[in-house]
Design goal:
The protein is of the alpha/beta class. It folds into two domains: about 210 residues, Alpha-Beta Complex (DHBP synthase), CATH 3.90.870; about 80 residues, Threonylcarbamoyl-AMP synthase, C-terminal domain (Rossmann fold). About 30% of the residues lie in helices and about 15% in strands. The strands form two sheets. Strands 1-8-2-3-7-4-6-5-9-10-11 form an eleven-stranded mixed sheet, sandwiched between helices. It binds threonylcarbamoyladenylate (TXA) and magnesium ion (MG). The site of threonylcarbamoyladenylate (TXA) has 30 residues, from β5, β6 and β10.
Amino acid sequence: MGLSAIVVTDVLQSDAAGVARAAHLLRAGSLVAFGTETVYGLGADATDDCGVAGIFAAKERPRFNPLICHYPDSAAAFADVIANARAVRLAASFWPGPLTIVLPRASRCAVSLLASAGLDTLAVRVPAHATALALLRAAGRPVAAPSANRSGRVSPTTVQHVLGELGGKIAAVLDSGPCAVGVESTVLDLSGPDAVLLRAGGVTVEAIEAAIGKLRHRDDHASDVLRSPGLLASHYAPTLPVRLDATDVRRDEALLAYGPPLPGAALLFQLSAERDLTEAAANLFAGLRALDADGGARGLAGIAVMRVPQRGIGLAINDRLKRAAAPRPPGYR
Ligand code: TXA
Ligand code: MG
């Protein structure tokens, strides 16, 4: 372990000075976390091999899992990839917003090949967050940014979550407030003949299908697993075991509730009392973290989760919950 691994993480305010400082750090090759409308991202200058390599090191992320590149507008994003009619239509409808589009890399693309993890495609997105857009404009180059958590863990939706995950490992975090959407962007592969949903997220399948027609879902075809190598089964995992579709709660379990809570839980976090899926998405990761921390401290045995409807942004919520409940890799703690 070299001493260079130890840094103090600055918390920068989302004013002009904070944005300028964050942009300067990015341009100098440092790692800077910043808020978006979905979750906090761990950013680096995407054109800098060392910066991008630093993301993989700080997250302990497998090198085969590619990164999303962030841009201030669709013109900048489409300069680095080979766009097509469907991509242009979706960008017009949903950017800035929680949609990521995977397209073939353009020959002129200056993004580090590490960010594509050996694929000939690049994932691009324009986030809908004023501070993030100001940062991207000030940086003046594409910013690679996966979620700012250690690999396999719950994504962060506040500055405190980021500091808990990566404090001391990154130069700074730009405080952009809590994330409004709360689950990651929808990832759509438009690099081939079919439009393939790689990850459910902030833009609903219904909305995308209204714009470009029927999507193929990644899980339908085993070959798609290779197209998005990052989608490992266990992910978003708290330390406590997670039990889905609970219809009762054991006395030694915490409850993640959706609507009127099941009786008898030792500890409760409400995703949405009114059964509002948008509100539930915004609360999801903070809820998992809170139950994990408080439940762990009280010696509880696990987290029971009430059923969330499989429609709209509920697809993204259920995808994250399913991965949070998946068998953990050996040595996980
Ligand atoms: O909302 C979000 O998307 C957040 C914020 C920070 O923008 N970012 C995020 O990044 O969730 P990350 O790295 O945690 O998830 C990116 C997903 C991974 O599942 C990865 O495998 C997939 O996108 N991905 C990235 N590049 C890809 C590519 N070229 N082909 C296929 N999948 C790709
Ligand atoms: Mg992630």
